[in-house]
Amino acid sequence: MCGIVGIFNLDKSPVSSVVLKKMTDVIAHRGPDGEGLYVDSFIGLGHRRLAIIDLSPAAHQPMITGDRQYAITYNGEVYNFQELMVELESLGYKFRSRTDSEVVLYAYVQWGVQ
User: Fold this and answer.
1) CB 29 within 8 A of CB 47
2) Gap between the Cα atoms of 20 and 37, Å rounded
3) Does residue 80 have an active-site annotation?
4) 103/68 Cα distance (integer angstroms)
5) 5-25 pLDDT, tens digit each
6) Could you count the other beta carbons within 10 Å of the beta carbon of residue 10?
7) Are 42 and 15 in contact (CB under 8 A)?
């Protein structure tokens, strides 16, 4: 099972990547296959990866859209992600990985919260 951490500074002070890294280190046992950090001003996401679906580096998290407007760190399972991926590809989305995480990211971009 992967592990995720996050920081959201309500006072809008910058997130410390050092603190975020320490947080992901604490949960290293949750994801021995990789680690990723994303910091954008007062928001920080950390991920420890247990690779199951797509074992390639393209599936590392956090994932960020090409325009850097959206980011996700995700631990879960979408059983119909392959069908959703085909639908999103038909709408013009280009996937780097073959993961449900990236499908969740672009499904949000396309359809928002429903």
Assistant:
1) no
2) 7
3) no
4) 16
5) 999 999 999 999 999 999 999
6) 6
7) yes
Is-cis flag, bond preceding 62, omega within 30?
yes
Give the pairing of strands 63-64 and 43-49. Answer: unpaired
Q: How many Cβ atoms are within 10 Å of 59's Cβ, its own excluded? A: 21
Contacts of 32 (CB under 8 A, 6+ apart): 48, 50
Kindly state the tokens that stand for 24. 């992901």
Report the amino acid identity of residue 61: Q
Task: Give the containing element (helix H, strand E) for 36.
Answer: strand 34-40
H or E element at residue 100: helix 100-111
**pLDDT tier, 1 (very low <50, low <70, confident <90, very high otherwise):** confident
Choose, from 1, 2, 24, 56, the residue flagged as catalytic: 2
User: Can you give the pTM of this predicted structure?
Assistant: 0.88
